[in-house]
Design brief:
Distance between the termini: 44 Å
Shape: globular
Number of helices: 9
CATH architecture of the largest domain: 4-Layer Sandwich
Helix content: 10-25%
CATH class of the largest domain: Alpha Beta
Bound molecules: D-[(amino)carbonyl]phenylalanine
Order of helices and strands: EHEHEEEHEEHEHEEEEEEHHHH
Strand order of the largest sheet: 5-4-3-2-1-14
Strand content: 25-35%
Radius of gyration: 21 Å
CATH superfamily of the largest domain: Carbon-nitrogen hydrolase
Number of domains: 2
Structural class: alpha/beta
CATH topology of the largest domain: Nitrilase/N-carbamoyl-D-aminoacid amidohydrolase
């Protein structure tokens, strides 16, 4: 019996600065109902799905941004989503700004702010939490930019790693599920850490400006969707996993974000794609047995990977200058597998 899970993405159109959480939740419940009617067993919502993409708005004092954070989950305003899951047996992921009173690495108990995503099962239970690790943008107001992108101001780097959990969903007794958020999808390391835990379904939300707002260089607008799809299709293919990527899209207070949410199979093929930049449900039957081909051949990690050659990936943060060749002999860095053997 094939392990088929019907997965949907509930893409959201814009949420204006003036839109309340109640407005967002009402729109999400309508998408939830439509997805359920179409047979969805799991529904992925976007990053920061309860509010406008507030990192585009500079606030001098962090407390002024508290209005955009959730201090409890579920809360009275988000509880209807959990009730919808319980009533229908349909699970969902939700991206939101999390305010947690938590000890930091110095055991100091304080308010901590994360860009968070949770996975909730068909019984309304929170199965997994992920906090965004790759925070793009900047921490201080940047007058050179066409739009601010202050995720480094409002959020800490996520402290939960990239976990994968095996849990029941829909009619299946166990699926290996993992999550990432927005910018994470551009980093192959994120996908590979999930892949090394046997992930079968990666779920991510995103809020991606439709144009380069850095004020640096030229990036043709059509590349925005292309780079997003390239990252997700590559990540899914190279880790033999399904992926669902869900946008918050459209123009928020004059700032446009891409839609084109997609569902991708372990061969990197797009199974479903949104074609609007508004509220839209896309859906696909994911036969999870399809992960077997990749992970038993090309991406059989245990058979083919050579970690001794990858040390730079965890030893270094930034790139270093390469060796400059000098005439006389081929460059040989001296890093060989034998060196690894001597160590062992
Ligand atoms: N947004 C964007 C993203 O990674 C970005 C920021 C866009 C970075 C394009 C680089 C290039 O999709 C968030 N929220 O991470």
């Amino acid at each position: 019996m094939p392990r088929i899970l019907t997965v949907a993405a509930a893409q959201l159109g814009p949420l204006q600065l003036s839109d309340s959480r109640e407005v967002a939740v009402q729109r999400m419940l309508r998408l939830f109902e439509r997805a359920k009617q179409r047979g969805a067993e799991l529904l992925v919502f976007p990053e920061l799905a309860l509010t406008t993409f507030f990192p585009r708005h500079y606030r001098e004092h962090l407390d002024e941004a508290d209005q955009w954070f959730e201090t409890e989950m579920p809360s009275p305003v988000t509880k209807p989503l959990f009730d919808a899951a319980k009533a229908s047996g349909v699970g969902f992921t939700l991206g939101y700004a999390e305010m947690a009173l938590e000890e930091d690495e110095t055991f100091c108990l304080r308010k901590r702010r994360f860009n968070t995503q949770i996975l909730v099962n068909g019984q309304g239970e929170i199965v997994l939490k992920y906090r965004k690790i790759h925070l793009p943008g900047h921490a201080e107001f940047d007058s050179n930019r066409k739009a601010q992108h202050l995720e480094k101001r409002y959020f800490e780097v996520g402290n939960l790693g990239f976990p994968v959990v095996r849990a029941a969903m829909g009619n299946l007794s166990g699926i290996n599920m993992g999550m990432m958020i927005c910018n994470d999808r551009r980093w192959p390391e994120a996908w590979r850490v999930l892949g090394l835990q046997g992930v079968e379904l990666v779920m991510l939300g995103y809020n991606t400006p439709s144009a380069n707002t850095t004020g640096i260089g030229f990036e043709a607008p059509h590349l925005r969707v292309q780079h997003s799809h390239l990252s997700i299709q590559a990540g899914a293919y190279q880790n033999a996993t399904f992926a669902v990527a869900c946008a918050k899209a459209g123009t928020e207070d004059g700032f446009e974000m891409i839609g084109h949410s997609i569902i991708v199979n372990p061969q990197g093929e797009i199974l479903a794609q949104a074609t609007t930049w508004d509220d839209e449900v896309i859906i696909a039957d994911c036969n999870l047995d399809q992960v077997q081909l990749g992970r038993s051949t090309v991406f059989d990690f245990d058979k083919h990977r050579q970690p001794w050659a990858y040390a730079r990936i965890t030893d270094q943060v930034g790139a270093v200058e390469p060796h400059v060749w000098s005439r006389g002999k081929p460059y040989s860095p001296g890093l060989t597998r034998d060196a690894d053997k001597q160590k062992a």
